[in-house]
Specification:
The protein is of the alpha/beta class and 305 residues long. It is 46% helix and 9% strand. It contains ten helices and six strands. The chain has a six-stranded mixed β-sheet with strand order 3-2-1-4-6-5, sandwiched between helices. The longest helix is centred in the N-terminal third of the chain and has 32 residues. The protein is globular, with a radius of gyration of 24 Å. The N and C termini lie far apart (78 Å). About 4% of the residues have low confidence. It binds iron/sulfur cluster (SF4). Iron/sulfur cluster binds next to helix 5.
Length: 305
């Protein structure tokens, strides 16, 4: 490549990085505003695993804090689970270089999980349960008012599909919730951010990534398969993942089947037209297109049969 081409490539890369930065900050800011994730005086414990998502979360939160309308503190926390080969010096070195207050919690959950889960079975459910309990305790000890996790848009959608496909429940991953022990508010400021953007941001910012599959149990997870599936869809029909996320924010209980959410048993005709109401007989997306030639009313004899 000659010098003018080099200069053009550098300019283009800088332009793309700037665009990506603006999108990330806008989407995180939007999620924070939409779900009222951050309030004045908050101390936000950012859980840092060493993966691209949590690095990006911390990075964007640090920069948003500089222009946020409210004051809040950030403390980064990493749980060193003593997985073999975990490079314990990487995160402290990075966090010191960023001037972020941090805490490394060392707990050998890896050995506990290995002891209790037979070889070949997935370790994730016990591992994450142990991790959750430890992080809640650390949040309490640090006086954190919020716990921020690095789950992103694709995680939210994949979780919803996993719950549908394998759990028979319409349940996603919330952007904000109260922890299962009732004591903490957990936030997911990356809820609107595409994983591919986080990947590009991690490369651009050259985060010192620690491989996330050190425990070697990730390759067979349903999560990995469903993620692959939605990315295949996205390639074929761009915009589907965003649409699924949007759908999670536009739920219509009267058009689902949860009798606890909508009083199907007692509904009555009101006699009043509803412009946004159902057009029951027109909405059959799986039926072939109806042409008048195809519509044939059954004869009385056919009806009796
Ligand atoms: S992938 Fe590894 S570290 Fe993550 S939850 Fe599963 S067992 Fe634990």
């Amino acid at each position: 490549m000659n010098a003018p081409q080099d200069a053009a490539a550098v300019k283009k890369a800088a332009f793309e990085a700037n665009k990506l930065s603006k999108r990330l900050h806008r989407q995180v800011g939007q999620a924070i505003a939409d779900f009222n994730m951050v309030e004045a005086g908050d101390k936000i414990m950012v859980c840092l695993s060493g993966g691209k998502d949590s690095y990006a979360l911390l990075d964007v939160l640090l920069s948003l804090r500089e222009r946020a309308p409210v004051d809040f503190d950030i403390v980064a926390v990493n749980l060193d689970q003593k997985q073999p080969g975990f490079p314990a010096d990487v995160l402290p070195a990075y966090l010191k270089s960023r001037g972020v207050p941090f805490h490394i919690e060392e707990q050998d959950t890896y050995s506990i999980v290995k002891q209790h889960i037979p070889e070949g079975q997935t370790m994730c459910s016990l591992c994450s349960r142990l991790r959750r309990g430890i992080l809640y305790r650390v949040a309490r000890e640090l006086g954190a008012t919020k716990i921020a996790l690095g789950h992103h848009r694709d995680d939210m959608v994949v979780t919803m599909l996993i719950n549908m496909f394998f759990g028979g429940r319409l349940k996603g991953m919330p952007a904000k919730l109260v922890s299962d022990n009732g004591q903490h508010v957990v936030i997911r400021p990356l809820a609107y951010v595409a994983e591919s953007d986080l990947q590009r941001w991690a490369e651009h910012r050259q985060f010192p990534i620690i491989p996330c599959s050190l425990c070697g149990s990730q390759t067979n997870l349903q999560r990995v398969q469903v993620k692959q599936m939605i990315h295949d869809w996205e390639r074929q029909y761009p915009g589907r993942i965003d649409n699924m996320l949007r759908a999670m924010g536009h739920v219509v209980p009267s058009h689902l089947m949860d009798r606890n959410l909508y009083p199907f048993a007692t509904i009555q005709a009101t006699g009043v037209a509803d412009a946004s109401g159902d057009i029951a007989f027109d909405e059959e997306p799986c039926a072939p297109p109806i042409s008048t030639a195809m519509v044939q009313w059954p004869t009385p004899r056919e009806q009796e049969a």
